[in-house]
Amino acid sequence: MALISIVMGSDSDMPVMNKAAQVLEEFGIEYEARIISAHREPDVFFEYARSAESRGVKVIIAGAGMAAHLPGMCAALFPLPVIGIPMHTKSLGGRDSLYSIVQMPPGIPVATVAIDGAKNAALLALKMLAIGDPALLEALKEYSARQKSEVEAKDARLQETGCGAY
Ligand code: RP5
Residue 64: CB within 6 Å of ligand 1? Predict the structure, then answer.
């Protein structure tokens, strides 16, 4: 059963959204992934968001660009957490997507990550699931420890080789 649902407004969002999927796969968490446009097929979108809770979904990760209403409308219909990923755009550099997603009216929260911040969206979703899953919490702690070791190893190399090697 998919605990996390990844949804995006277009297949053009896939290169970014794939980064969220990769993190979930790394942690062995089941997810579903859908391309659904809230604007171009509102009926399909409505059915998706309305049925997510009964399908067992605990967190929705929604990515969209331009007038990015997908995450906000997910939050209007789905009673559990929604994480929004604003897509970078050619015309406005993703500020359009960011403002559309982050400026939610009071009462309908969307946890908005950085422009193209799919990796953090997945990690945030995992942290939400980890509230009730001690094994997942341990895996997240190990992930953080690995990150720390990687930075330490880079610094150790810098101390050995000096800046010229970079
Ligand atoms: C949004 O419009 C999508 O999320 C995408 O980021 C943007 C452009 O969509 P396409 O024209 O590439 O399908 O709905």
Answer: yes
